[in-house]
Design brief:
Helices cover 25% and strands 32% of the residues. α1 (13-24) packs across α6 and α7 packs across α8. It has three domains: 4-173, Rossmann fold; 210-262, SH3 type barrels; 267-348, Elongation Factor Tu (Ef-tu), domain 3. The chain is α/β, with parallel strands linked by helices. The chain starts with a strand and ends with a strand. It has eight helices and 17 strands.
Length: 349
C-alpha cells in the first residue's frame, strides 16, 4: 500500500510537478487547494489532479487567512514596519492545516512545492531544513518558522532539482501554464501594489495619518509625504524631492508621521535584534555564528548572535549591512543548513 501524502496544490507549475513526482516516486498524493482570498482559481489544480489520477480537495480558509495574515500585515505596515506575511502563513496556515488534513485522511506525510530539503540528523534526532539544490530558487529563507513536529512530516519533491528542470517537465507533460503562474508578488496582492491594497482595505485607518513631513536625521524638514506607509527602508523612488544628492529612506516614525531620509552611507547597520526566534535545525544555545540573511535576495554575511530574554537574539554582522528593515526576517545558516530565524525588531546602528 503506497504511503499517502497531502500536497498543497495551487495549480501552478511547482505544485503540479510536485504531484507528478510524488506519484512517480511511489507515493499516493492527495491534492489540496486553499481558498484564501477572492479571485483565486484552482481549475488547473483540478485538471492536473484528474490527469495524473489523484484526489483533489478545496478547503476554505478565508476567515483564518484574513484574521491571521491579512489583518496583521496591515497593522505591521501601519506601524512603520515592512512585513513578510509568507513567513507567518507557512507554519501557521499551510503546514498546520496540511497536518490536520493528513490526520483526517490517514495520510503519512505532507508536501509542498517549495525549493528546500529536509534530512534526519541521526545524532541530534532532529530534522534539519536545508537549502534547495537550485541556488537561484532556494526558498528555505521563508520557511524558518517551521517547527520540528511540522518538518518531521514534510516532503519537498522539488528540493533536489532545479527550476529549469521543473519547467521542462511541466512543458513535456502539459501540467501547467507557466506564463500565468510565475508571479513573485504576495499571493493576496497579485498586482504587487501594496499601497493600493492598504488604501482599499484600511482606508479608515490610513486617512487618519494624512500628510506628514520628510526630515533629515538632524530634523530639518525637506519635504512632505502622503502617508509613511508608502515607504520602506532604503527606498529612493517616490520621495519626489530635489536634494542635489541621492537621499534614501533611513527610518520611519509612525508616531510622529515622519519619514527620515539620509545619504546611502548612513543606511548601514552593525547588527539587529530578532524577535519570535525559532530554532529550526538545532537545539537552542546561548551563542551561535553563521551566515546571516536579512532579506530573500540578500547574499548573506558572516555574523555572530547571542540569546537575549523573551525569545530574542542580538545579531552582529562582520561587516555593516545596508537597509536592515524592521518587519522583515533575519535567518542564519551553517552551510546548507538553516539554523534559526526571527523577525527583525530593531536595527543596531
Amino acid at each position: 500500500m503506497p504511503e499517502k501524502v497531502v500536497l498543497a496544490m495551487s495549480g501552478g507549475v511547482d505544485s503540479c510537478v510536485s504531484a507528478y513526482l510524488l506519484k512517480q516516486h511511489g507515493y499516493l498524493p492527495i491534492g489540496v487547494s486553499f481558498l484564501l482570498y477572492d479571485g483565486q482559481s484552482f481549475e488547473n489544480a483540478k485538471l492536473v489532479s484528474e490527469k495524473i489520477g489523484i484526489e483533489h480537495h478545496l478547503i476554505d480558509l478565508q476567515d483564518m487567512f484574513r484574521k491571521s495574515i491579512i489583518e496583521p500585515f496591515i497593522n505591521e505596515y501601519l506601524s512603520g514596519n515592512t512585513p513578510n506575511p509568507c513567513v507567518m502563513c507557512n507554519p501557521n496556515i499551510k503546514w498546520d492545516t496540511l497536518i490536520k488534513l493528513a490526520q483526517d485522511l490517514k495520510a503519512d506525510y505532507i508536501a509542498t512545492g517549495h525549493y528546500a530539503r529536509v534530512v534526519q540528523d541521526e545524532k541530534s534526532k532532529r530534522v534539519k531544513l536545508l537549502k534547495g539544490i537550485d541556488r537561484f530558487k532556494d526558498q528555505s529563507y521563508a520557511l524558518w518558522g517551521l517547527k520540528q513536529y511540522q518538518l518531521v512530516k514534510t516532503l519537498f519533491p522539488l528540493g533536489e532539482i532545479t527550476k529549469e528542470e521543473v519547467k521542462k517537465l511541466a512543458t513535456k507533460l502539459e501540467l501547467a501554464d507557466q506564463e500565468v503562474r510565475e508571479s513573485q508578488e504576495l499571493c493576496f496582492i497579485p498586482e504587487g501594489d501594496y499601497r493600493k491594497f492598504l488604501l482599499k482595505y484600511a482606508s479608515e485607518i490610513t486617512s487618519r495619518f494624512g500628510h506628514g513631513e520628510i526630515v533629515t536625521e538632524s530634523g530639518e524638514v525637506v519635504g512632505y509625504h502622503r502617508g509613511f506607509y508608502n515607504f520602506t527602508i532604503g527606498q529612493r523612488k517616490g520621495l519626489k524631492i530635489a536634494f542635489g544628492k541621492r537621499m534614501y529612506v533611513k527610518r520611519i516614525d509612525p508616531e510622529r508621521n515622519l519619514v527620515v531620509v539620509a545619504e546611502d552611507s548612513a543606511l548601514f547597520s552593525k547588527g539587529m535584534i530578532l524577535k519570535n526566534v525559532n530554532w529550526v535545525s538545532i537545539e537552542e544555545t546561548e551563542n551561535i555564528a553563521g551566515i546571516c540573511k536579512i532579506r530573500y535576495s540578500h547574499s548573506g554575511v558572516w555574523a555572530t548572535a547571542k540569546r537575549l530574554e523573551n525569545g530574542k537574539m542580538e545579531v552582529i554582522f562582520r561587516e555593516p549591512q545596508r537597509a536592515v528593515t524592521p518587519g522583515q526576517s533575519g535567518v542564519m545558516y551553517d552551510g546548507e543548513t538553516l539554523l534559526l530565524g526571527g523577525i527583525i525588531e530593531k536595527v543596531l546602528n
